[in-house]
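Tokens as discussed.
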């Protein structure tokens, strides 16, 4: 089967039969790190070593079953096979392919993705993490569209820590997933953008392609919605809490434990906590108050740079 499409993401090359416009297209490499192709995918493993509501693990094989979309078989960190439910929109198939399936593939390669959006501020990577709905993508998109901050990656951050202990953030997708209300606040028309999923009011917004080179990650902001008990503000996280919080904000942490990577996950978060500053950022969720939150962020970044 011919792999017509070639992409670069997170310092890795992908070869795919499926067109993936959310990724940066490249010339065909001599040999791709990860291949993506359709094929027969089992409904379940005969002897799984671990399982969850939608996944099973058997050695270096990971099976993801997404109802009404399809099944994905991830093997040895280098191969993803998908079997799609008939009439499933390509956008729906790609959403889980480039999310949970690719995330599992990265974990098989020994990487620990962070559930974060990352921007380039003053030549250094700054990550925004937090639970779904905290505003990671929205904040990164606002910085990109209104302050010309390049976006390295959206929602899933691929990090590598070098021998000197410096974490590096690698460029990811060249589109961001944003809800319709966020797009309106940014002055963008959702009707002109492709949907991320056929049944969701979430869309792919284009961003300027960042350079292929990674950037050193210096700061991580854990996002929270401000309220009467927690007014807008930025506060440091105590050192003894940092590792636990980073473990929680890893991408699909249940996959990591099910794969037997608990120790590697912990050591990765320890190294990350030593290398970056981690702060809680209680930010206004009302779009009309976004400038107030950004003023707090810029003031904090300037103070940290001194």
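Sequence:
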């Amino acid at each position: 089967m011919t792999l017509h499409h070639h992409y670069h993401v997170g310092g890795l090359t992908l070869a795919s039969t499926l067109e993936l416009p959310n990724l940066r297209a490249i010339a065909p490499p001599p040999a791709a790190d990860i291949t993506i192709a359709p094929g027969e995918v089992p409904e379940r493993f005969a002897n799984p070593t671990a399982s969850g509501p939608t996944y099973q693990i058997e050695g270096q094989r990971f099976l993801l079953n997404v109802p009404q979309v399809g099944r994905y078989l991830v093997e040895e960190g280098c191969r993803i096979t998908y079997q799609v439910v008939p009439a499933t929109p390509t956008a729906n198939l790609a959403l889980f392919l480039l999310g949970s399936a690719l995330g599992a593939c990265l974990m098989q390669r020994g990487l620990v993705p962070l559930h974060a959006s990352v921007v380039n501020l003053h030549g250094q990577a700054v990550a925004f993490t937090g639970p779904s709905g905290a505003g990671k993508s929205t904040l990164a998109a606002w910085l990109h569209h209104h302050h010309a901050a390049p976006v390295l990656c959206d929602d899933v951050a691929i990090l590598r820590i070098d021998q000197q202990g410096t974490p590096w953030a690698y460029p990811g997708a060249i589109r961001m997933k944003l809800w319709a209300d966020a797009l309106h606040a940014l002055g963008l028309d959702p009707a002109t953008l492709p949907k991320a999923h056929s049944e969701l009011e979430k869309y792919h917004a284009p961003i300027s392609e960042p350079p292929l080179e990674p950037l050193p990650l210096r700061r991580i902001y854990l996002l929270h919605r401000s309220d009467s008990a927690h007014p807008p503000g930025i506060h440091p996280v105590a050192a003894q809490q940092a590792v636990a919080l980073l473990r929680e904000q890893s991408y699909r942490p249940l996959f990591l434990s099910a794969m037997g990577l608990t120790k590697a996950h912990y050591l990765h978060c320890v190294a990350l906590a030593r290398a970056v500053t981690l702060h809680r950022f209680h930010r206004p969720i009302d779009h009309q108050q976004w400038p107030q939150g950004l003023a707090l962020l810029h003031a904090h970044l300037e103070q940290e740079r001194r």
